[in-house]
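Many introductory courses stop at the sequence. We go one step further.
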Amino acid sequence: MNTPGSSLAAIAAVAFTGGVARGEPEPAPPRDEGLAMNLSIAGSIGAGVLVGLAGDHTSAAWRPAAIELIGAVIAPSFGHAYGGDYLSLGLGLRAVGAGLAALGVYDWSRPSHGDSSTIEFSPVGGSLILGGLAALAAGTIYDLATTRRTVRRWNHEHATVVPMAMATASGPAAGIGLGGCF
């Protein structure tokens, strides 16, 4: 029987459930571990190739070298960023390493005793450069080694459970089903 109250209730139910369905975000699809690894490897190799092709780093040519160094610090973390970890430990190690190396180059190449004609290479500067390069390498290795784990963690944290009705060959049946992407 169709009464004004039942029609109003049906309209309200459709409007309410339609609004709820539209307001819920769709679940994020799982992220691909292989793609994350490729991003990290491509970033690492690309930055290394750019640094190697830079050529002369004297006078005004230091600017491209600085840009390449920034790429060498940031690019190996592309896979971690894809996996939702924007500030990885490897990125921090590389940033500290770049700072140490830059400080070492500054200390190593400054004139001795205020005389600009002679340069005395400082063992402290050389140690800072080697320590910085070691930190750059360690940060890159760390990010490459942990990229897949970062993406797996993202996929685990963003997994969704969705109820759905399923038809069986014998008609409707109550039960529990499990499905997933691995």
